[in-house]
User: Which sequence fits this backbone?
């Protein structure tokens, strides 16, 4: 049986409100970085470290710097673990977070709900045993048949659309299963392996699993309860697609967001284990994987031609004409599909933002082989084509990228990769 990470109740050093002071106005940029430090605990980032999450202090300083009036609405259409919605909530603003991945929304719900009241925990005693079977369960990719029923008892016991307490129990379940299956994580943090043989399957007794989840719940409750009370604004979270935002036109004052990059990160694969707990088997049901932006699956309706600016067109042409295998086929289709998702998302952000509203977009440039993917420039050009004007563009160097982890990709010559915070104002 694998050892479960001990739950600690380290007190999170709650940041001083950085506010406007953190903005170095002479250089027009924040002195904080959008990159979340790996050991970050501010904004409860450690309760479930989400891939490519923002730094909470940075997001909060950016929201505070706008000095928006009470009642203003902040949107993140690619909300992930909800750093934007948490930052806006703490500034007393209205926040809306949209993400297509239900796992992200459960984590975001726990973070924003965290200061409301002392959370009540789910006791293993209240969960009937022996109700669930292991048959056809997606958890069979990592757990043996004897272990699955108790894990499934827990998951089935929690309502699918969690209120505050269930988010806590769900995240505790996520953390427990993650800790038990950590051997299936490779050097690429977004690629989770499956057991190749029965010997690799994890085995855990029902009572050990119960204790582990209860410990994780206590850890989360401590982390939440220790965090000081701060100003709260209303938050709405929805599992929806950024290319069809369930929002009225011109209803948003500020958008702070970071879409998936063109780096072949599959957010469904990255959260396969959590999705399995929610009953979604991505190895059989491809609908979620295929709907996510940046997916490595090519949809049946992959577009051939649509309106795009000159930088995006150049990228497609460089990818298509690259000498390496499948560049003119699969990789061209994937890049085109990605750009269409990005542009549809931008169309939607443009539709829902009020005239004069601001958009902060955090994007990372990357490489296809040795072809630079100038994502920040593509976003600026496309936003300008949609009536936005550029206010600022702040680059931050990125030290560790997926390309640096991928041996095959290292053979191509590349220069430093940057992440850019692009700020635009809608006309
Ligand atoms: C870079 S992450 C955002 C991280 C976030 N800033 C945070 O602090 O946690 C991008 C998010 O976009 C979501 N996403 C991907 N495709 C989407 C789509 N079509 N509609 C909505 N969200 C999508 C992914 O699930 C992922 O959570």
Assistant:
């Amino acid at each position: 049986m694998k050892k479960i990470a001990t739950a600690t109740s380290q007190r999170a050093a709650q940041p001083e409100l950085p506010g406007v002071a953190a903005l170095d106005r002479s250089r027009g940029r924040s002195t904080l970085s959008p990159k979340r430090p790996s050991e970050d605990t501010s904004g409860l980032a450690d309760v479930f470290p989400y891939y490519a999450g923002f730094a909470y202090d940075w997001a909060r300083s950016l929201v505070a710097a706008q000095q928006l009036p009470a009642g203003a609405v902040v949107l993140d259409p690619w909300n992930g673990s909800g750093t934007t919605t948490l930052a806006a909530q703490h500034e007393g603003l209205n926040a809306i977070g949209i993400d297509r991945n239900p796992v992200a929304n459960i984590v975001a719900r726990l973070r924003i709900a965290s200061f409301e009241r002392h959370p009540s925990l789910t006791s293993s005693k209240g969960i009937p045993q022996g109700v669930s079977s292991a048959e056809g369960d997606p958890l069979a990719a990592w757990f043996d048949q004897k272990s699955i029923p108790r894990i499934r008892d827990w998951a089935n016991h929690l309502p699918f659309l969690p209120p505050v307490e269930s988010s806590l129990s769900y995240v505790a379940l996520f953390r427990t299963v993650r800790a038990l299956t950590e051997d299936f994580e490779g050097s690429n943090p977004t690629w989770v392996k499956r057991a190749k043989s029965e010997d690799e399957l994890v085995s855990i007794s029902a009572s050990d699993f119960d204790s582990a989840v209860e410990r994780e719940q206590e850890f989360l409750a401590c982390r939440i309860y220790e965090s000081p009370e701060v100003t709260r604004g209303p938050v709405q979270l929805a599992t929806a697609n950024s290319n069809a935002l369930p929002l009225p036109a011109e209803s948003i004052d500020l958008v702070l967001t970071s879409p998936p990059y063109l780096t072949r990160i599959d957010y469904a694969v990255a959260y396969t284990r959590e999705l399995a707990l929610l009953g979604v088997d991505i190895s059989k049901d491809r609908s979620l994987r295929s709907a996510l932006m940046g997916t490595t699956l090519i949809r049946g309706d992959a577009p051939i031609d649509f309106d795009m600016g000159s930088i995006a067109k150049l990228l497609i042409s460089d990818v298509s004409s690259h000498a390496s295998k499948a560049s003119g086929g699969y990789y061209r289709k994937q890049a085109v599909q990605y750009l269409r998702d990005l542009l549809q998302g931008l169309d939607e952000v443009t539709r829902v933002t009020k005239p004069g509203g601001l958009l902060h977009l955090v994007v990372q440039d990357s490489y296809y082989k040795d072809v630079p993917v100038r994502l920040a420039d593509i976003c600026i050009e496309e936003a300008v084509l949609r009536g936005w004007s550029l206010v600022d563009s702040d680059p931050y160097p990125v030290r560790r990228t997926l390309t640096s982890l991928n041996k095959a990709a290292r053979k191509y010559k590349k220069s430093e990769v940057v992440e850019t915070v692009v700020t635009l104002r809608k006309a």
Notes: Residues 327-352 form the longest helix (26 residues). Residues 1-427 form a domain with the Rossmann fold fold (CATH 3.40.50.150). Confidence is low (pLDDT under 50) at residues 1-29. Residues 214 and 241 are 34 Å apart (CA to CA).
